[in-house]
Design a protein that fits this description.
Elements lengths: L2 H10 L20 H14 L2 H11 L4 H28 L7 H5 L10 H25 L3 H32 L1 H14 L35 H9 L4 H19 L6 H10 L14
Length: 285
């Protein structure tokens, strides 16, 4: 089981909201209304770990190890929402999300294949790590800059934990897991070809609720994410390429082959239908 070891590793580096966030360094003149509004939207988006965890537990009932790991992931992701709301409570109480706004993004996701969902969230952690790194650069107020840096580091560790479970899945299921990971990897590394950002919070997950079946569609401002990425934090082609590079790098480690482009990964995906390719599982992220 991976859960006991992951618990120890993540417990050892867990930050404390009171001790490790430099609240005393707050500079009111360095926080604009525009920036404060984005903090509220990020706080609500992080709250989406609640319905995501409910989905994971439902779709992984046969995997107690991974389900137990959800206790860590859920705790730390909800803590992200809490620290952003605590920032607003202290410095912009008028923008603290209401319980109704938080509850609006709690809805049931349709069942989905567990392996594809695992890969989807692995890529989501990589993407969010880069989004938050860019947000930390864009913000001008010292405390929120540190918060976003802290959150980005958590997301990187979560991605590493998901990678451990992906490595285990290849050892157990072989080509089936490789095909699932390659399929979603091609999708998530092709964001420049899509009209919207590719992240779990921006994907349709409930047919009966369409089109209001994404997390972003249920925010107070459904158009916020694209504006945040394109206009505010300026998540441009350079940053997008960093995300793609990390996805391809990790797919190369998982599959034991070198993928320099999405096209190479896609050709590998197509080849899996005809040939079972054994996975090579090095200890790296």
């Amino acid at each position: 089981m991976l859960y006991p070891e992951l618990f120890k590793q993540l417990e050892a580096v867990r930050w404390d909201m009171e001790r490790d966030i430099p609240w005393h360094q707050y500079k009111a003149s360095s926080l604009s209304d525009e920036q404060a509004q984005t903090i509220k939207m990020n706080a609500i988006t992080e709250w989406a770990a609640l319905p995501a965890t409910e989905m994971f537990l439902r779709d992984n009932r046969d995997d107690s190890d991974f389900s137990a790991f959800m206790s860590i992931w859920f705790f730390e992701e909800q803590k992200h929402a809490l620290v952003l709301m605590e920032y607003l409570r202290r410095f912009r109480p008028d923008l603290v999300p209401t319980e109704q706004e938080l509850h609006a993004i709690r809805f049931e996701f349709d069942p989905a294949p567990a392996l594809e969902t695992l890969m989807l969230h692995f890529c989501g952690e990589i993407r969010l790590n880069h989004w938050y790194r860019r947000a930390a650069e864009w913000h001008t107020e010292p405390v929120i800059k540190q918060i976003y840096t802290t959150l980005s580091q958590d997301e990187a560790r979560h991605g590493g934990a998901y990678l451990r479970y992906m490595r285990r899945a290849i050892a157990r299921f072989g080509a089936e897991a490789q095909a699932a990971f390659a399929k979603v990897g091609v999708l998530m590394a092709s964001a420049r070809r899509t009209a919207q950002a590719l992240h779990p919070t921006n994907l349709h997950v409930n047919k009966t609720l369409f089109p209001r079946d994404t997390i972003q569609s249920r925010l107070p401002d459904p158009e916020w994410l694209e504006h945040w990425l394109d206009t505010q934090i300026n998540f441009d082609a350079v940053w997008e390429n960093k995300v793609v590079d990390r996805i391809l790098h990790n797919m190369s480690l998982l599959m034991g082959q070198s993928f320099q482009t999405v096209q190479e990964l896609n050709r590998y995906r197509k080849g899996l239908a005809a040939t079972r390719v054994p996975g090579v599982l090095p200890e790296a992220v």
